[in-house]
């Protein structure tokens, strides 16, 4: 920021002096070109770091992510007695025995295809929204104020989450349907699923559950980024010499727990809405978002809204931690490469 400010001052001063010093034109143009190159490098670095971080964390935690999805959708086509017998160990054993060990990564290819652009847009949009919010009058002069910083991180994270989810939603829906398949294989891959959904349910079928997604992902990413940034700031202010990797991993894990706990019921409803009509099955929920909430609460109770929260915790602690750690590490590495090139 300081470097950009200095360049801006030089350009502004140079523009006023062009008539009296024509020789400055070439120098100013060169500085302007250099500034554009630096900005472009920064953008590419952020997109690359965000994409790789998201793909790596999702691949590492794919088995737990699939268990979470299977638990979340059990209430759609299962009776209460079956639900009471469900456990992480039993479900994991069933997958290994009936589908094989590789089935724990079922749908992971589309997960990576979704996560690369999703995480890239998410982290990049967050950095952009954060800079824009910091320029707002009243916040610009209060950057050292924790409440102002928290507001910037929360709002910026929420806007980034909504932006990235909207852009990549069809891939998220396809990933859910592939991961939710057990013994009966209806969708044979990404392109077959895409073609089948459009053919049977129309283009809008690719956006089933988008309302619940945006309602959930905004607060989820907002909480995740704000908790992460706040914890990291407090940690580094008290222990500035601790490893950046350790700080990012720990703060990222804690932020993941906070965001998952707060928004898990919305995520569960989102998954079930995404599976409406999948594989030719009849619709289960004929009402909107709040009607679906009410139906789950009446038939399954409060526990039904948090079905699958345990494997979600097992997944989110390493997953979000790895994501933030990888992102921060790659940003530093790519910044060093850009500086030396």
Automatic annotation (TrEMBL):
Annotated family: Belongs to the mitochondrial carrier (TC 2.A.29) family.
UniProt keywords, alphabetically: Membrane, Repeat, Transmembrane, Transport
One Pfam match: Mito_carr
Membrane topology: Multi-pass membrane protein
Solcar repeat coordinates: 41-132, 148-234, 243-333
UniProt cross-references to Gene3D superfamilies, sorted A to Z: Mitochondrial carrier domain
Keyword S-adenosyl-L-methionine annotated: no
Alphabetical GO biological process terms: transmembrane transport
Principal cellular location given in the protein's record: membrane
Gene Ontology CC entries for this record: membrane
Domain of life of the organism encoding this protein: Eukaryota
Subcellular location(s) per record: Membrane
Provenance organism: Quillaja saponaria (Soap bark tree)
Protein name: Mitochondrial substrate carrier family protein
Keyword Oxidoreductase listed: no
InterPro entries noted in UniProt: MCP (IPR002067), MCP_dom_sf (IPR023395), MCP_transmembrane (IPR018108)
Chain segments annotated as transmembrane: none
């Amino acid at each position: 920021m300081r470097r950009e400010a200095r360049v801006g001052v030089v350009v502004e001063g140079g523009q006023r002096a062009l008539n009296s010093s024509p020789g400055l034109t070439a120098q100013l143009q060169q500085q302007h070109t250099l500034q554009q190159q630096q900005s472009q490098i920064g953008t590419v670095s952020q997109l690359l770091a965000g994409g790789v971080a998201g793909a790596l964390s999702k691949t590492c935690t794919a088995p737990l992510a699939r268990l979470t999805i299977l638990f979340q959708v059990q209430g759609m086509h299962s009776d209460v007695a079956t639900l009471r017998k469900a456990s992480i160990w039993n479900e994991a054993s069933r997958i290994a025995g009936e589908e094989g060990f590789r089935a724990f990564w079922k749908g992971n290819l589309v997960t990576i295809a979704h996560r690369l652009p999703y995480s890239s847009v998410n982290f990049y949009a967050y950095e952009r929204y954060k800079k824009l919010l910091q320029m707002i009058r009243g916040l610009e002069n209060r950057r050292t104020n924790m409440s102002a910083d928290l507001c910037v991180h929360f709002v910026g994270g929420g806007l980034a989450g909504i932006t990235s989810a909207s852009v990549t939603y069809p891939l998220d829906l396809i990933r859910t349907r592939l991961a939710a398949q057990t013994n009966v294989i209806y969708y044979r891959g990404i392109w077959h699923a895409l073609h089948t959904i459009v053919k049977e349910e129309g283009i809008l079928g690719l956006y089933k559950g988008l309302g619940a997604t945006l309602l959930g992902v905004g607060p989820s990413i907002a909480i995740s980024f704000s908790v992460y940034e706040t914890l990291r700031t407090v940690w580094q202010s008290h222990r500035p010499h601790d490893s950046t990797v350790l700080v990012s991993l720990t703060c990222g894990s804690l932020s993941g727990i906070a965001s998952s706990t707060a928004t898990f019921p919305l995520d569960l409803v989102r998954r079930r809405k995404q599976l409406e009509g999948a594989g030719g099955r009849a619709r289960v929920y004929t009402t909107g978002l709040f009607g679906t909430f009410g139906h789950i609460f009446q038939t399954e109770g409060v526990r039904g809204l948090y079905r699958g929260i345990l494997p979600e915790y097992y997944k989110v602690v390493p997953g979000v931690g790895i994501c933030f750690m990888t992102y921060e590490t790659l940003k530093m590495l790519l910044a060093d490469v850009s500086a030396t090139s």
